[in-house]
Design goal:
It is built from 15 helices and 20 strands. A hairpin with a 7-residue loop joins β18 and β19. The protein has three domains: 184 residues, Rossmann fold, CATH 3.40.50.880; 188 residues, HUPs (Rossmann fold, 3-Layer(aba) Sandwich); 102 residues, 2-Layer Sandwich (GMP Synthetase, Chain A, domain 3), CATH 3.30.300. Helix content is 33%, strand content 23%. α1 packs across α4 and α6 packs across α11. By secondary structure, it is α/β, with parallel strands linked by helices. Bound molecules: adenosine-5'-triphosphate, xanthosine-5'-monophosphate, glutamine (GLN) and magnesium ion (MG). The site of xanthosine-5'-monophosphate has 18 residues, from α10. Adenosine-5'-triphosphate binds next to α6 and β12.
């Protein structure tokens, strides 16, 4: 097993992966394992430091999650975050109780002394809290190294053991100096050097792919999107013509998408792309289906069926490669800890049990913006890298309720108009993702003195870095006005356009 300088034990926080990612940004390779990882497996990775993540449970409750207690005796530095801090406290005989005041959001730190963990940060820094429990009494040997108005133990330390803990979340964006705090732990406490980068990641992945695939072939699902293009580039580098790239027309694509993808792939990757037209099968199976999760499962399953059928036409295909990212995984299934299912991404939670392929998913641990850096590293063109994400289930999850050909056409036309306006005003590049949704909500309008009773299109444009969180984009009103006017004038069947002003959380980016 490969050595990993910093290992995170995941107790189910939605933010766990951000810890790993912030560490990687600091040049320290970091991986996540479930909280229940056997002690021997942890030792085998020879980590220089362990991080205990946050989590939804309470350490004193019946359903609390405990790691192998041997992790506290490994003799290596440890950093507990929120639940991780509470766990450490309880393990060493301190007490954790339900707090009378829950603390969600911003807090200001007051430092006690000059701890090396806070090197180059400073007093009064803003941190982000998210907890309902609190440390009431510190265990022996621990002392506080920072406080906040509501948390007398905002940060604690046991110098002899080199155990540290934060009640706040250094991994989230809103903790101003969070990245620096994690770096300080890795650098000053664990003695890690900042030598890792996306170039070394690409090399490792290429080696791993070669070792796994041997002389077999790999079918790679490509969509023209960023993630699968990067995976295809990694595979092309690793195994050359043992790569069989397959693009599926599932009938849920945007206007002209198929032609664009075919053209882009030929020119840029120089590999022969196989296109399978499976639109009839997908649309037939979606008839009468309105429940979002059911739609997603049907689409996921049909993708695999199409891939397996295609694989039979070639000799020696044993693997399916997909551009699965961490975002797809964390929302679909409980990955490595006890987190909740939000929606089944077609390429993860939507995979059928009967699937025979062995999966190759080199991007499974990383985020979209990291993938973009990797893509540039691999020499992919900027237009391919900066393309907005487009989900595999496509327009199927952007038509509320049943999907049919007529509505697909309406939505395609609205989408073209919206994208034209965004591109013309430079807002395509300035935003993270933009699309239209057909709401299937009818309302009354008046056009040319006549009454209309037609459908509604929702415009959704968001800002994000990795898609884990997002805010609606503040698009100038005159641009929204043009989009609205043009959609209503140019798309038959639409008499109303609305703009989605919700953020994620509590909403999600897609509507289904
Ligand atoms: N039409 C398609 N044909 C073949 N494979 C697909 C198709 N759509 C999606 N996939 C597979 O599912 C994976 C996940 O889709 P997803 O949309 O998240 O990634 P992407 O399309 O590669 O990138 P982007 O997020 O930029 O759209 C893809 O990486 C690809 O392997
Ligand atoms: O390939 C995909 N298959 C899916 O099933 C899927 N569901 C959502 N998405 C994309 O993921 C990002 C986060 O979306 P949500 O906030 O809606 O979960 C956004 O970029 C979404 O477009 C998907 N991509
Ligand atoms: N974010 C967390 O780790 C929360 C820990 C614990 N569930 C609490 O509410 O205090
Ligand atoms: Mg896509």
């Amino acid at each position: 097993m490969k050595d990993v300088p910093i290992l995170v034990l995941d107790f189910g926080s939605q933010y766990t992966q951000l810890i790993a990612r912030k560490m990687r940004e600091n040049g320290v390779y970091c991986e996540i394992v479930p909280y229940s990882e056997p002690l021997e497996a942890i030792k085998a990775r020879a980590p220089k430091g362990l991080i205990l993540s946050g989590g939804p449970a309470s350490v004193y409750a019946k359903d609390a999650y405990y790691p192998d207690s041997g992790v506290f005796d490994l003799g290596i530095p440890m950093l507990g975050i929120c639940y991780g801090m509470q766990l450490m406290t309880q393990h060493f005989g301190g007490s954790v109780v339900a707090a009378s005041h829950h603390e969600y959001g911003k807090a200001e730190l007051t430092l006690e002394g000059n701890h090396i963990l806070f090197a180059e940060t400073g007093c009064g820094q803003i941190v982000w809290m998210s907890h309902g429990d609190k440390v009431e009494h510190l265990p022996e040997g621990f002392e506080k190294i920072a406080t906040s108005a509501n948390s007398p133990y905002a940060a604690i330390a046991h110098e002899e053991k080199q155990f540290y803990a934060f009640q706040f979340h250094p991994e989230v964006y809103h903790t101003e100096q969070g990245s620096r705090l994690l770096k300080n732990f890795a650098k000053y406490i664990c003695g890690c050097e900042s030598t890792w980068n996306m170039g070394s990641f690409a090399k490792e992945k290429i080696e791993e792919i070669r070792a796994k695939v041997g002389s077999k072939k790999v079918l790679c699902g490509v969509s023209g999107g960023v993630d699968s293009s990067v995976v295809a580039a990694l595979l092309a580098e690793a195994i050359g013509d043992q790569l069989v790239p397959v693009f599926v027309d599932n009938g849920l694509l945007r206007a002209n998408e198929r032609a664009q993808v075919e053209a882009a792939f030929k020119v840029r990757l120089g590999v022969e792309l196989i296109t399978v037209d499976a639109s009839d099968i997908f649309l037939e199976r979606l008839k009468g289906i309105t429940e979002p999760e059911q739609k997603r499962k049907i689409i996921g399953e049909t993708f695999i069926e199409v891939f397996e059928k295609e694989a039979k036409k070639h000799n020696g295909i044993e693997f399916l490669a997909q551009g699965t990212l961490y975002t797809d995984v964390i929302e679909s299934v409980s990955v490595k800890g006890p987190s909740k299912t939000i929606k089944s991404h077609h390429n993860v939670g939507g995979l059928p049990e009967w699937m025979k392929f062995d999966l190759i998913e080199p991007l499974r641990e990383i985020f979209k913006d990291e993938v973009r850096i990797l893509g540039l590293e691999l020499g992919l063109p900027k237009e391919m890298i900066n393309r907005h994400p487009f989900p595999g289930p496509g327009l199927g999850i952007r038509i509320m309720g049943e999907v049919n050909r007529e509505d697909l056409e309406i939505l395609r036309k609205a989408d073209v108009v919206m994208l034209e306006e965004l591109r013309a005003t430079g807002y395509y590049e300035k935003t993270w993702q933009a699309f239209t949704v057909l709401l299937n909500v009818k309302s009354v309008g008046v056009m040319g003195d006549n009454r209309t009773y037609d459908n509604t299109v929702c415009v959704r444009i968001v800002e994000a870095t990795d898609g884990m969180t997002a805010t609606f984009a503040h698009i100038p009103h005159d641009i929204l006005e043009n989009i609205s006017r043009r959609i209503i004038n140019e798309v038959d069947g639409i008499n109303r356009v609305v703009y989605d002003i919700s953020s994620k959380p509590p909403a999600t980016i897609e509507w289904e």
